[in-house]
Amino acid sequence: MTQPFATVVDIARDIASGNTSAVEVLEHHLARINEREHDIHAFNLVTTEQARATAQQVDADIKAGKKLGPLAGVPIALKDNMCTRGIETTCSSKILEGWKPPYDATVVTRLQQAGAVMVGKTNLDEFAMGSSTENSAFGPTKNPLDTTRVPGGSSGGSAAAVAAGFAAASLGSDTGGSIRQPASLCGLVGVKPTYGLVSRQGIVAFASSLDQVGPFTHTVADAALMMEVIGGHDPLDSTSLPQPMPSLTSVLGQGVTGLRIGRLADMPDGCEPEVLARMDAAYAALQAAGATIVDISLPSLSYCLTAYYLVAPAEASSNLARYDGVRYGMRVETADLHSMYGATRAAGFGAEVKRRIMLGTYALSAGYFDAYYGKALKVRRLIANDFAAAYEKCDVILTPTSPTVAFPLGDKTSDPLTMYLCDIFTIPTNLAGHAAMSVPFGTGAHNMPVGVQVLAPALGEPTMFRVAAELERAS
Questions:
Q1: In the chain, % of residues over pLDDT 70
Q2: What's the pLDDT band for 2 if we cut at 50, 70, 90?
Q3: Which of 21, 79, 199, 402 is catalytic?
Q4: pLDDT band at residue 136, thresholds of 50, 70 and 90?
Q5: Is 321 left (phi over 0), alpha (psi -120 to 50) or beta?
Q6: Active-site residue identified among 132, 154, 173, 317
Q7: CA distance linking residue 267 with residue 259, whole number of Å
């Protein structure tokens, strides 16, 4: 889908050249927020005054002849599970309402160093647990392209903010598809990097072995620039890869001649016909551009959802144990410490978070650990092996990002399993720790966007971005 909004690259260039000012760009975006935010609810908090101060500083630096960062003056939105010093960070949960971290996440620091202007903290499914942004304690976010439909989740607020023109780009987190699926449903580019390529320091943890941070943008070039800013080694994150971020902007014009594109021989059931039609068009476009289409199989794909919904809740059960009413966040006062723990967590967590904590605690409990969690880890190994075998035959794999276009608000909230099936194409990459991104490629049912997902092996981002750029040109 074509978008009428200025790109990150264009905004940064125009500000640096003096064609416009950072303040003018910011005020344009704030005006759009004032115009549509009450209908969309992309934000939990709009940081108007901080943003204006940053934009004024960018303009002052330009006037003084100082060297600018690559994102100088570009309005950026942040998912509200990324710590921002002195600015409320809630994870869209009552249990953290009012909490102001004493430090910034590494990705926030890197955006600041690049000159970006933070316009606000975006809504999400509580603690990033969901596929529609309907699980937020502060109300759902709506899809700017059709406000009767969901924007996807859990990073739906970040996707909606960019799709509505509230920010030129945003950051989300992806544990099982939470960047790529909303990108697909909102007609955006969304990137889930290789595990460890982008720092998780200062990201409120959901499932630590799965979480990754990545951008939402209107174009592949914008996504490449954003990745180059936020990626690379961070000594504060023990899972950070000890190597620099590879260049991505430099590969976008290289084309796909000679690349092998993997096509799933056995597509899972449940895809809308229009989504499959767009996939066929994507294969044809890449073949016409010089790539070779290779049929591949991922035999353990059917087990991915089951494994994920044991591994992720188990890690969430451990990570969310820290919210006990003692150190930070809300507290329900009771007669004794033990009852305070229970009352605080009962009042502070929503239904989906409670569901996953209980499922994870059960899977980790004595007598069930080997039967459930242990087996899920073995399946995770099988999935990684299947990917390794597939990548011997191809350079990247193409799948739908989501089996459907954006669905109506409330359509799946009563059936968690139906909601979980939205992530059938995105979860495998998180389990393997590989790279993946969603690229808008036309429309499907109800004239809503369809995203094509490009999967690559670990540290395969340069090749992945080459393919994504070609898909963008073809669309």
A1: 99
A2: very low
A3: 79
A4: very high
A5: alpha
A6: 154
A7: 22
154 is catalytic: yes
> Which tokens belong to 372?
């459930």
Find the CATH number of the domain harbouring 246: 3.90.1300.10
d(CA 293, CA 260) in angstroms, rounded, equals 6
Close Cβ partners of 435 (under 8 Å, ≥ 6 residues apart): 191, 192, 193, 194, 197, 429, 455, 456, 457, 458, 459, 460, 461, 464
> At 325, is the secondary structure helix, strand, or coil?
coil
- 193 inside domain: yes
Cβ neighbours of residue 374 closer than 8 Å, sequence gap 6 or more: none
| CB of 195 closer than 8 Å to CB of 175 | no
Burial zone of 64 (CB within 10 Å; 0-12 exposed, 13-18 middle, 19+ buried): exposed
Cα gap 333→34, rounded to integer Å: 38
Q: pLDDT at position 4, please?
A: 66
* pTM of the entire predicted model: 0.97
The answer to whether residues 448 and 278 touch, using CB atoms and an 8 Å cutoff, is no
Task: Confirm if 122 and 47 have CB atoms less than 8 A apart.
Answer: no
- Cα distance between the two ends of the chain: 8
DSSP codes of every residue in 333-370: --SSHHHHHHHHHHHHS-HHHHHHHHHHHHHHSTTTII
Average confidence (pLDDT) over 166-171: 98
The yes-or-no answer on residue 375 being catalytic is: no
pLDDT score, position 464: 98
Residues 182, 186: Cα–Cα separation, whole Å: 6
How far apart CA 264 and CA 267 sit, in angstroms, is 6
> How many domains in the chain?
1
State which amino acid sits at residue 30: L
Tell me the CB-side half-sphere exposure of residue 178, using CA atoms within 13 A.
29
C-alpha separations of 373 from 211, 309, 366, 368, 378 in Å:
18, 10, 11, 8, 9
CA distance 465 to 252: 6
In the three-class reduction of DSSP (H, G, I as helix; E, B as strand; rest coil), residue 475 is classed as coil
Enclosing domain of residue 79: 8-250
pLDDT of residue 329: 87
Q: Is residue 78 part of a domain?
A: yes
Assess if residue 108 is contained within a domain: yes
Q: Quick check: is 128 in a domain?
A: yes
The yes-or-no answer on residue 79 being catalytic is yes
Q: Round to whole Å and give the CA distance between 267 and 269.
A: 7
pLDDT at 126: 98
Say which of 21, 131, 170, 178 is annotated catalytic. 178
Burial classification of residue 446, based on how many CB atoms lie within 10 Å of its CB (0-12 exposed, 13-18 middle, 19 or more buried): middle
CA 82 to chain centre: 12
Residue 320, helix vs strand vs coil: helix
